[in-house]
Amino acid sequence: MKKIVRRQMLAHYAAAMIGGFWGGYTIFNYLDIFANAQTGNLIKLVLDLCEGDFTFIWFMALSFLVYCGGNVFYVLVRRKVRLSMKIVSMICSAAAVVAIGVIALARGGVIACFPIMFVAPIQWNAFKIAGGNSSSTIFSSNNVRQAAILTTNYVLSRDKSTGGKARFYWLTLLSFHIGVALAGCTSLFAGVHSIWFCFVPIALTVCAYYYYISEKLRVASLVNAGK
Q1: What is the CATH number of the domain that holds 28?
Q2: Does some domain include residue 226?
């Protein structure tokens, strides 16, 4: 069982690299837009309304709708399709990369952020739990909170279980920012076309997920054989 949990966590870390890549890519290439979450976009929307600046109102409003659309898509597919939502998420991530790559070739500007805004909540929901820990793979606020709290509790109590949970959140943060670094480094020489390098963390996620599922199936077969 511990091996299954460790492999599940590996898939989570790999998915966090995808989330980090998306964040780094859009911030670096598209006006500091963080497409993975809506907090900043909604703040910008309200501030622009207060200032009477309607230049990017359309973008902020549409961003909100697209992000909501990703969540709606997740709910509908989960109810109607028997395929694992993690697999659905990886397929959607690959499709988003292709869509962004095409938009970048066509010089479509900030609309290249929309595919990420759609698939980010799908990944968030699909990879939200690993090893019993609730953690986002597309942004870091709660992961930082959990890492800091759990580390403090571990220092005070020396409880191994708490230390293991703290390590999980720190490794998720590390994985996320490895993805950011990959996006930043590749964007330096490839610009908006660096999106194709996102297939690296996607491929790692596919491999890690296969590694996890193969172990689950192996254990299940052993259990069935024992019966």
Answers
A1: 1.20.1250
A2: no
Q: Which of 121, 104, 105, 126 is nearest to 113 (CA)?
A: 104
Burial classification of residue 72, based on how many CB atoms lie within 10 Å of its CB (0-12 exposed, 13-18 middle, 19 or more buried): exposed
**How far is CA 104 from each of CA 65, 98, 101, 194, rounded to the nearest angstrom?**
22, 10, 5, 10
Asked if the structure places residue 178 within a domain, the reply is: yes
- List pLDDT tens digits, range 72-94: 999 999 999 999 999 999 999 99
Does residue 136 sit within a domain?
A: yes
pLDDT tens column, 106-141: 998 999 999 999 999 999 999 999 999 999 999 999
Residue 188, token pair as written in the block: 């330096």
Strands (DSSP E) found in 108-215 = 129-130, 133-134
Record the pTM.
Answer: 0.95
Q: Is residue 224 part of a domain?
A: no
The total number of structural domains in the chain stands at 1
In DSSP terms, 130 is beta-bridged to: 133
Between CA 106 and CA 192 the distance in angstroms is 11
